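Slide 14.
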Amino acid sequence: MSTHADALMIKRFLRISTANTLREALGLLLYGEERKMDTGAIVVINAEGGFSGLLTPEALLRGFSKQEEGVGDYESFLASVDDQLLETVETVMEKDLPVLSPDTGLLEIIKQMSKGKHECLPVIKNNCVSGLVYITEVFKEAAKLALISGEDSIHLTDN
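Slide 15: predicted structure.
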């Protein structure tokens, strides 16, 4: 029996629109953290309700680091960040990343995740995001399969 994306994905995740600002995205991240929700990635939805990209804490930090030339002290950095908080999510989100279907197998998921620096990939069903598959879950599943006893498995010894 092969593991598929639908068995590895998380089904509760945060969503935000491409038109929302980075300030609103920060608020959503903090809201999610307070409620012990997964905040490793926020699904970005376009005006038509379709998948547009992912917003990660790393992408937000990259957005804040777009400093003007000569911004060197703390106060000017804060002023620069304050201006950047008005930018839309669309300006910093991760775009053009691979997507999975619920029946994408483990091997294909591993291939897709190893092509880029993606901590997670969206699972798309009927043009909507139905879940997110995180690399940590893929790793755990692959490790579990590698450790199952059998001729081709990894054997641990006390040596």
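Speaker note: The first strand starts at residue 14 and ends at 17.
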